[in-house]
Structure formats: structure tokens, C-alpha cells
Amino acid sequence: MTVIRNLFLSTDLGLLDRITSKEGIRELVVIASQIDTQLMGSERAKFGGELPKILQNINTNILGNQLSSTLSQLKESNPEIEDTFDQLIKQGQEKVLHTSGICQTIYNQFNNPNSWEGGELKVWENLTKYYPDYFNIDDSVLSKSNLRLLANISAPFDVISNVRNKKEFILKGKKENFIIKKSDALIKYKDRLISFAKENEERINNTSIKEIEKQKKNLEKVRNQASISLNETYYDLVEELQTNIKKELSKILSTYFTETRILVDEAEDTTTEEYTVDKGRGFIFWRSLTGSRYETRSRTVSSVRTGAVRSALENLTSEIENAVTIKSQEFIHEWKKALYSRLIKELRRGTDDDDLDPQIIRSTIRNVLNNIDYPNIEYGASLPESLRVKGILKSKSAEEYIDDAREYLTKLKTRINNDISGYVKTLIDVLNSLDPSSKIFETYNNKIKNLEEQLKYKEITLERLNNLIEELQNIG
Length: 476
What we know:
Layout: E1 2-5, H1 13-20, E2 28-32, H2 42-46, H3 51-77, H4 86-90, E3 96-98, H5 101-108, H6 118-130, H7 140-151, H8 154-206, H9 209-266, E4 268-278, H10 286-290, E5 294-305, H11 306-348, H12 358-370, E6 392-394, H13 395-432, H14 436-456, H15 458-474
């Protein structure tokens, strides 16, 4: 929750920067302080001095409407706000809380009026003069009740308490959602294990030792025929991956930096201001020479909204990292699918269907591809202190800030470009270090040997698989 004091009385962009730069702010209320000063105007006559009606009208119709109008204008002129204040704009009348610190002081010291100082005395004088039906020194119960109404100190604490309760509710919901997702994942994993066990059970029932011996003999024949084509296919696809992934990641980088530079440029503005020059300083005869000692001149002054710049720069790194990570994962996923299909095709070329077990071949290639240690691209960047300034800067400070922001962008782009190049090089080095044909045939041979061992103890193996399936199915 964020409390904003008198935002509806001033377009305080400095405060706006501090709020919009924080993530997660969604509970906003506005505290209208010094409500006692609002009671002595035309509203008193309009509602015949009825205090509750006057308070309600000030909160909802005056302050609430002014709040919605002011924030709508701020949102239009400051796009970096995004949806931060939408709740206040839509529910302005419900989101204004009045308070009066001076009324709270009078309430606390009501039984000791001699301790009241000038401010308290003046407020009490006005209250008893204009609202005699609600404030009287001789009626402490009535007076203290209405002083508490004006002070309204409990309202902000009630809001804070509600927000805390809501936070606990949200966290509980997230926890429950996390548990549900994990449970679903475990169920899917269990189903895959059951499917795997049933496939093994079926393979053992439908395979003989004689067939295993035949496949072992055929394995060397297939290795000799397919090794070269397997490797050529694999390395061709690695080269293709290198070209495409670097090109695509660089394209993403360029797009994000172009958009961020535009946002930074848009945060800069220029205004014209007037100033007075004393032309006669240092001249004895200024009057006879000019006819007027002072002259009004104008100059152009630069300004920058640091909140917009800071928000753009902070979002840039996380957005690029997410985009690059997701895109690289998508590329590798699609590359693995294409490679899997091509390798299967190469293995089948020039061989009979019964030379190798198609099911074992598919699982072998999947295992080989999934066991490659694919590198990750990770980086983070923090803004330098010179870019952490908040509020609106003008003149030289604004120009220096914008220069620092643009320099930061240039250096960051170079750094991330280098990171991408390093990531692609590491990825390709890892892929090129693999001898795919040797790995595939080695893995296939191990699977055949394992199947042969299971067939030697067929009854025990089937019993174990059956027990495993039953145990998995009984897991709730």
C-alpha cells in the first residue's frame, strides 16, 4: 500500500517517479490532511452546518473528483505511469481518507486545554464558533466524538490492516496454486513412468534372445553404413543453428534498444523561460545609453523526467534477458526436433526395417539429444548512481542525465552483444564436441545389452515391472 499526501493538490512528478519506479504497488489510497481547514468555506453554508454531510461531500464530490481528474491528466502526459493509478482514477471517491493531526492533538489533550498552543487554540475557536452543535468545552463526550471524526486516525491503519490481510490471502492463493501445479506435474510424471514400464513389459514379452543376437550383428553393419551420413547431417544442422540463432538474437537486441532509446528521448523536453537582465551594472551612464536599465530575455531550458528514463532502462535488461532466453530455448527445441527427424531418416536409409529396433532407435536418439549440456545465457545489470536520481531535472543536470542514459545504453548494448556472441560460441562448441554417430551407436548397444540381461531373467523382470506399475497406480 502506498499513501500519497495531497497528490490531488499538486502535480508532483518527483513523487510520481518514486511511486512508479516501485514494482508491485497496486493498493493506493490518498490521505487529505488538515481537513479542519476545509470546514470553514462555502460547504458549511451549503449544508447548513451539518458536519457529517459536509465531511462526506468534501471527501467524495470535491476531493474524490479532483483526484480522478488530476491523475487522469497525469497519466495522459506521463505514459510511464501505465496502469499504476487506474484504481485511484476509477475509485477516486472511495479512495480519499481525510485526517487532521491538530484535531487529534486537541482530542488527546482535551482535559488539559491550558496545554493547547496557538494552532490548537485557533482550530478550537473556529470549531466552536461555526459548529457549536458539535463542539463545546463543557460537553467532552460530544466534542471528543466529533474531534475523533475529524482526526480519523484509525482509517489509515484500517486500510493497512486490510492490505495485510489481502496480502496473506493472495500469498495463500499463490501457495495453493503452486501446490496444484506441482501435483499436476507429479501426476503427469507418474503417468509417464507407468507408460514407460508398460512399454518395457510389452517389449520383453515380444522379444527373444535370438532377435537380440540378430540386432547385435546388424548393429556393426548399420554403423559402417550410416556413421558418416549421421555426422554430416548433424554438423550441417549445427552450422545452420549457429547462423540462425545469432541472427535472431541480434535482431531482438536491436529492437529492444531502439524502443528504449525512443522512450529515453521522449522523456526529454525543452521549455522557454523568461529572466531579467540588469544592463546597467558596472556602467555609470546606463540611463543615457539605454533608456532602461532592466531587460526581459528568454532562454530555452532542457528538462527530463527521470522516472520515465529509469523505468525504461530498468525494464530493458529484464525484457531482453527474458526474450533472449525464451527465443534461444525455442530455437534449440525446434533444432532438436529437426535433428531428431533427420537422424532417424539417415539411419533408415540403406537399412532394412528389421536391422534395428525402431522403438529403441527413437529412444536412443532422444536420450543423446537430451543429455547434451546446453549452456544458458544469463546476465544482469544495475543502473549507475548517476541514473538513480528521482524527479524532474532541468538545465545542465537534465542534459548530463540524458547523456549518461544514452552512454549507458550504448555500453549495455555492446556488453549484451558480446554476451550473445559468447553464448552462441559456447553452444556451438558444446554441440561440435559431440561425436553423434559414436554416441548413438554406443547408447543403442547399451540398451540392447540391458534388454538382453532382462530377457535372461524374464520372469523376475516382468514381476518387478508389474509391481512397479501397481505401486504407481496406487499413488493418489
